[in-house]
Amino acid sequence: MVCVSGSLPRGIDLDDFTDWMKQLRNQCMCIIFDSSREALIAGLKASPWLVKPNRHELESWIGHPLPTYQEIAKAAQQLRAQGIAHVVISLGEEGVQCGSTLPVPG
For residue 36, which phi and psi values (nearest 5 degrees)? Predict the structure, then answer.
């Protein structure tokens, strides 16, 4: 198991980061990934085993606001559909929603 988290050092090419993540995934299937902004989008292309974006990061990836739990769940399922086994969405004061068993209120 490998955890890749935080921001990228200045000057790292995003395509190179995606390629590195894919190479890492070939060596270790259980990659836990937690990043933001462009690094998040680049790393998601490698389909890590578990990702933990917050709501704002998920909205950035999907390209629009996610005001309801249903929309958050749908976006999490899109990540799962691209091969990410576990999706954990942190919601600040509202807590965490897990994509593999994501409850959808109401």
Answer: -145, 175
What is the model's pTM? 0.80
Phi, then psi, of 80 in degrees rounded to 5: -65, -35
For every residue of 68-98, DSSP letters joined together read SHHHHHHHHHHHHHTT-SEEEEE-GGG-EEE
d(CA 28, CA 105): 35
Kindly give the interhelix angle for 37-44 and 14-27, rounded to the nearest 10 degrees. 40
CB 106 within 8 A of CB 69: yes
Average pLDDT over residues 29-55: 92
User: Under DSSP, is residue 17 helix (H, G, I), strand (E, B) or coil?
Assistant: helix
Q: Identify the structural domains of the chain with CATH numbers, from first to last.
A: 2-101 (3.40.1190.20)
